[in-house]
Design goal:
The chain has 16 helices and ten strands.
Length: 388
Amino acid sequence: MPEKILFVDDSRNVLDAYKRQFRKGYEIDTALGPEWGIEKLSSDGPFAVVVSDFRMPNVDGIEFLKMVKAQMPETSRILITGYADVETAMKAVNDGEVFRFLSKPCPHELLLETIQAGLEHHRLLRTERDILERTLNGCLKSLIEVFSLSNPEAFGRTSRIQRYMKGMTRPMGVECTWLLETATLLSQIGTVTMPQEVLQKKYRGEPLTAQEDELFARHPQIGGDLLAAIPRMEEVAKIVRFQEKRFDGSGPPFELSNQGREIPVEARMLKVVLDFDTLETGGTDQGTALQELCKREGWYDPILLDALKQSFAKERKYTIMELSLDGLRAGMILAEGVRDEVGKVIISKGQQLTDGLLMHLMYLAHQRPIQEPIKVIVPLAEDALATS
């Protein structure tokens, strides 16, 4: 994909001059003023470099380049300014709003050299981002796999709420973003410090002692702290910390007073599906569980609670089967936990089987006998597509 350069100025003559100077060897676009510049970012971006004049009507060059930074942080931003504005331009550089600034009149050779430096800077940032994303995704995959093996009860819960979350996003007309999916998968990571028997009681809806309840209530903060130590996971960490915060501002973290839409929307969604899952795994049917959530005044974002209700409005089509280990397929949902020969749960109820989970189950079966048959929920074609 060719690297594009955008010139923004309120003078048509100046923009025409840029086109003449850089028509060879570069893909050039121009915008007559900052308003058109913002339009260009949305319609024709991304741009590797944006060159803007400082003095323009309504919005000056620094304010415009702040908008560029917000939309395209990897774009190199160059400001061209008159002598009287040098001090302002230097402040913009020091504050990180622009990559370089040039004084008028600017020789063609200097502008060309600066644009080349801007292109190199853009390539460096893009390469750094790609490396970080690949590293981060690899680390997260390993972290989730280790989590699933060491803490099957908690991982079973994340598998269930991931399905509910996908069901919620459809009535809202939004996609399940990387941020939402990652926060969902790692929402229970803070439970790694908790005894399995306490988790089993909690996820089965059994009452906890005061000490156990206090221990469980700390897991969002523990999980948030663990994730905050990973580069570029700050937003995910914040969502995990706020997953138990009620819409009216009550609930942990108690030291923060965020309420309503001050709470990250992903955390508000987690609160709805986590509480629904607690009721359902405790033996409450889906309809009654939804009614119970509706009675809890101030706990949930009404829009998100309605989205969860809509996701269950259409009757799910499935059948329950008892199958041997060899008969299991990806997409099936465990109606009961998978147990070994002594009755220990090795994969908890509610998890949707994936190719990776089936391979893990086959491996475990080679290590020790597994109780068969295994009871599973088999979605019919339409529902299987909806939850895939």
